[in-house]
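Model it.
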Amino acid sequence: MRKKIYNIIEPTKNITTIEKIYDIFMILVIIASLLPLTIKTHFTFYAILENVTTLIFIIDYLLRLMTADFKLKQGKISFIKYPFTFLAMTDLIAILSSLLFWNNTFRLFKIVRMIRTVRVFKLFRYSRSINMLIHVLKKQKESLLIVGALVVIYIFISALVIFNVEPTTFGNFFDALYWATISLTTVGYGDIYAVSAIGKLITMISSILGVAIIALPVSIMTAGYLEEIETRRHRHKRPNN
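Modeled.
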């Protein structure tokens, strides 16, 4: 019985109809649970929705805890280790934050509403596309880390240059870092900007180079994603051959 429950609640490569139904159902529940966070006033419908979705999350958590040995494959120790896994802690935090929010004493702590947004991470468990994306991120982590380091270094150097070129425009180094980040991403909010000719020239260079730097992680992720899709396609074709 526990094995059947595990096969339903835990996504597998060869997904069955009942597994697909459960995954879709849980995705809809997660989305529905976030709806109360979109309003500030109290409505009975949203209160009921909050109670129902929290109850479903509790049942789902208990079922996963009950079948932890099938997932972790470490015998009885699995039941102790499972609550400390990332997704299990996400489930527990989402449940506890909802339970605390029911209590008027805790309504003063607005941070609880923010904590409840961790339910979004529960989607990682049910979406195969997100799981594929995470797998690609793991495979391309070295390349992405190098690009990330390049971005940080470039932002720091740009901020350092503009901070010394226009000391009157940028009151502190954080403002310069903010400007460098906005210029790199070519967003340009216009709240802080260079006014001198040399400052504007630096802004132009930063924006042009920013397009190239920002494109690097996108191209890495696209190449990795296409490679993963091709690998999985070949993997599914092998049994037929």
